[in-house]
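Before relying on records like the one below, remember that each one covers exactly one chain. Contacts with other chains, cofactors or solvent are not represented anywhere in the record.
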Amino acid sequence: LVVHQRSEGLTQLRILELGAGADAPAIADDYLVEFDHEVYTVGSGSNPGFGQPTVRLGYTTMAVPSSVYDYDVRTRELTLLRQAPVLGGYDPDDYEEHRLWATAADGVQVPISIVYRRGARDRDDGGTRAVPTLLYGYG
């Protein structure tokens, strides 16, 4: 059973492996699908067969183009099926993505996602050079 949920502003996929047999627990296992990126959006597609061992899902980050994966619930492995092409020699590894938190006036923590060119903030210029950054605040 695949559950879509949101935690701290991120979409997540929770897998609930249902028990088999009269004496088995109702839920045999319960875990979140893990991804390599700190900031991402994920959602599953429809699976016509209830007992299928794979889940088709869509995945994207602020730097990684829309991708379609199959997730095998038995092995917990992701298999990339396709990824939207980006022209012009684009390489997602050229960018850094991070999750920061800001405190709102009412004390609530608000997640902020940022992306910028890898290494752009590492240069020693005394902090005077502007670094192009894309920022997204949730909430």
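The mean pLDDT is 87.
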